[in-house]
Fold this sequence. Notes:
The protein is α+β, with helices and mostly antiparallel strands.
Amino acid sequence: MNHASSSGSGRSQYRIGDITRLTGLSADTVRYYEKIELLPPIHRTASGIRLYDERDLSRLCFILRAKAMNFSLDEVARLLEMREDPQHARDEVRELTQQKLQEVERHLADLETLRRELTLLVNLCRGAEGGCPIIEDLEG
């Protein structure tokens, strides 16, 4: 890993290239997260190079995990606020997560309906002698 220690503090500092390698995010996405304040203002050298620390890296990993759980960026921002005081935010975190679970369950039900419809269309197509039942169904 290519990182330098900040002067005097002994804390690891990462350039944006290090962050992209460690997280898999693009540099544009990392800068965007800073712009929309999912990341606090990033320390910069005198020449303007961004230097990220372990806390920034941890925050980015948190964002990635929340996005993987299908939380929107607005929801991620709320979760990040709650992350600062998890004991007092526990009920709110649980409620937000419950809402996300219900949303996922609705999507699963929609996908199950879609799966049944597509299976029916494929089976109709196999048994059809003329035309295309799939195209006919899509045409209404």
